[in-house]
Please model this.
Amino acid sequence: MAESTRSGEPDEKIVRLLFTDFDGDRADPDDVISDGLDGGYADRTEALAAILRDPDEGPYERFLACLALTRWGDALGYAAVAEAASDPAAVDWRGASYDRLHTQDDTFALLAEAVGDSADMVEERATPEARVRAARALLAIADRVQFDRRISALLRRDLLSACLPALRDAVDRGVRRLAEHERLGFDLGVQLALMIVAARAVDPGWAAAAAGRLALAEPGERALRELRELQEPGGEEPGGA
Model:
């Protein structure tokens, strides 16, 4: 959450779990989550799961619990992400974190990053299928929820093939929204462009056609710059291998 912010003070329980490092010192949740990957996550998973499950906990606290569990490859974290994506407008932790540059909600963007980056944990946690389900659910709402460039975390080669139908459907819906000049409040064009460029690796024919449709929908200069990657053989794929 290094480029995000939120208002209010966190609850004491979440401070102990995610604002306190494994030496007992005050720390940033990003650092605690990262350090937990070395095995420390096991000592804090049960308590974070209890926060995530408890509707009486604050939205910010439950969001942070979900974020940590997801990054640690936990099945409950992935399931919570997929459930939230099934009805994003109803999620009460929307706005628990927001992008400093655009002052827009970025909770789903941060969860997308956690899902994508958790590839290094799924074998240890025996949760590869749960990760794919969470990624698929997030990609399915990419035409109506802000991810911006963090969507690249879901566009890794290990997820693309399994999630391609959801990606293609979201792109098709998003292009229609842009063509109809729907007011969205975020840069949908760049999200769609990143998805299309990444899909070239597994479905180049569809990607080329989708790029043409997106360009005609006037997606904005940022999106058009991304689409130019399709004209450059050997261009780097969003999200890496």
In short: The CA atoms of residues 60 and 96 lie 5 Å apart.
